[in-house]
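hey m, so remember when u said the C-alpha cells were messed up on ur end? i reran from scratch. heres the input so u can diff it against urs
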Amino acid sequence: MQEVWPIEMPFCYKNETRMVLKNVHKKKASVDVAIEKLFKCAYFIAKEDLAFRKLENLLRLLRECGVEGLPRMYNDNKACASFILHISKALEAEIYDRLRKSPWFGLMVDEATDVSVTKNLILYATFVEGRQVRTSYLGLLEVEDGTSNTITESILALLKKWNLDVRKMMGFGSDGASVMVGMSTGVATRLKSYNPFMTSLHCCAHRTNLCVQEASKNIEVKETCKQLDALVNRVAAHFSRSSLRQGELTKMQDALEYTHLHILGIVKTRWLSRHGAIMRVCDVYEPLMKTLQSQSDAYNVFLSLRNFKVVYMLHFLADVLKIMSTLSMEFQKEYVDVTCIGGLAMIAIGEIEEQFLHHVMMDLNGFEKDSYNYPIIPEYGREKGMLSVLRDAIKGNMYKSILMDRCIDGEDLIEAIRFQTLFSKALIETIKKRLQDPVTLCALKMLSPMNISTGSTSILARKTMGLNELKTLGNFYGIQKMVDGKAFSPIIDNDKLYDEYAIFKRQATTEWLGRDFLDVWGMINCNDVWKEKLPELLKIALIGLIQCSSTAACERGFSRLNLIKNKFRNRLKNNAVDALLRISIEGPELEEHDFNASILLWRESKAYRHIFTGTSHEHDDEIEDFIEDID
C-alpha cells in the first residue's frame, strides 16, 4: 500500500521519518517484552508465597545472571503489588466469564478465622464446561459477625457484582454448621427464598468424619474409646516433648530395622486423624514398647500398651478406620458424583459387616487353642491389615518380641471382640443416618446408566424402572413454586420428561451401558443431536452435575490461606490475600500463563506510567489498600 504524506516533503525527510517510526515500533515491542518480564517475576513471587519487596532482589539476581532487558522502573514492592493485583483481576474476569456461560452453577461456602483472628468466608463454584465439571475459586470475603444474614448478603452482593443470576444457582454446599443449614434462618434457607429449586448439601467428607465421632460416643463404647484416645495422645505427647526420647525411639527403630516413623496425636479438627494416630502406634509397636520399657517416666504407659485387650482394640480400630479413611478420601476428590455417594456408603457398610461381624465368637469354649494353650484370634479384618498382622505374629502371650498381659482362658479376647462388635454396629448405623442425601438428589441415580439394571427382569419391570425416581424429580423441578407470594416458574416440562426417559433408558441399556453419570451427560451436553432429543432430562442432569457434594476444595483453600497469611505476614490485607489465593489456586504454571490480559488491565489503570517518562509512577488508592503493612 502506497504511503500518503500529509504534506509534500523532500525525499530525505521521508526516509528519516520512516526510520523514526521504525525505531518507535521497535522500542514499543521491546517495552512490551520488558514489562512481561516484570509480570513474570511478580507472578513467580505470588506463586512462591514471597513478600512483595523481594521483587527488587529477584530482579537484581536476574541482572547478575546476565538477563537483559529488565527495566529499572517498577522494581519496588508497590509495583509488585500492582502487577499481582492485575494478574488476579484478569484471572477473576476469566473465571466469572466461564461461570456465566454455564447453564447452572453450584456454590460451596465455608468460614474460618485466620492468623490475625479475622473471620473469612471462602467461596468456590462448580459449573459445567463442555464435557467436564469445573470447580473454581471465587473469592475470599471478610465478614464482620458471621451471622447467616451477613453471609447471605455477602453472597448476593458478590453474585450481583459479577452479573450472576441467583436463579441459576442450583446447588449449595457447606460444612453443615447451623448458621449454614439452619431450618429457619440458615444461609441455605435464606438463599432458597430467591431460588426455591436450589438444593443444599452437607459436605459428605464432613459427614464421614461425623460418622466416626458419633460411633465413638455410643453409650456402650464411649468410655473405652475415650481411654484409647487418651492413651494414644499420652504416647504422642511423651515423645513430642523430648528430642532425647524421640532419638531413643529412632535408634530402636534402626536396631529392629523399622522405618523411621514419629508417633502422631489425635487432632479433633482434622478429618479422621484418629486413624493415622492409631495406625502409627500399631506400625511401630515393637520398637515403641522396647523404648518405653527403658524409660522410667513412661512405665504406666508401657503397662497399658502391654495389655492384650488394649492391643487388640487398637489393631481393630486401625482396620475399621482405614475403611472410613478410604471413604473420606473418595469424598475429598475434586469432583464427587452425587449419584455415587449412597453406593460408596453401602460398600463401606458391606466391608465393615464382612470383616468384623461375619461371625461373633462370645463363648470361651469356642476358641481353638494354639500350641501355647492360648486362644487363637479369629480371622477378622482385611487381608494384610493390622488384625491380620496381630493374628499371624502373636505366639501365646508374646507379640513379636513383647511379653503381653494376656488371659489364658480368652476372657480378654471376648471383651475385645465385644467392643469390636458394638463399635462396628454403631458405625454402620451412623453411616446409614449421616450419608443419606435428600430424596430429590437420590433420584438422580436413575440418570446414570451404571444404575439401570439390564438383568433378566420382566418386560413390565423394565418398562417401569426408574419411573418413581422420575416422578420425584418432576415433582420438584417441574412444578411452580411460591415463596412469599412470588411465583417461580417450573424449570422443566413434565409432559416431555417420560418420553425422553424412555429414549434414554433404551440407550443406557445398549450403547451407553456401564457409563457413569458425568461421562454420559457430558457427552450429551456436547452433542447437538442428543441435546435436541433429551432437552428436559439434560436440564436435570446438568443440575445434578453441579451439586456441591463435598466442600473439600474450601478446606484446601484455607490451607493455602494459612501458608500465605502466616505469622510473618499477618498484616496482609483482605484484597491482597484474595489476589494471592486466586493466583496460587487458579493460576497455571508460569510458562503456560498468558500475561496479555493482565498487562492490558495494568496499562489502563492509574498505576501505569509510561516507562520512558523517567518519573516515578503513582499508585491509586486500590494499590495502597492492597499493600501489606510490613512487607
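this time it looks ok to me. Strands lie at 105-113, 119-129, 132-142, 169-174, 199-202, 394-395, 398-399, 402-403, 481-483, 486-488. if urs says something different then somethings off w ur setup not the seq
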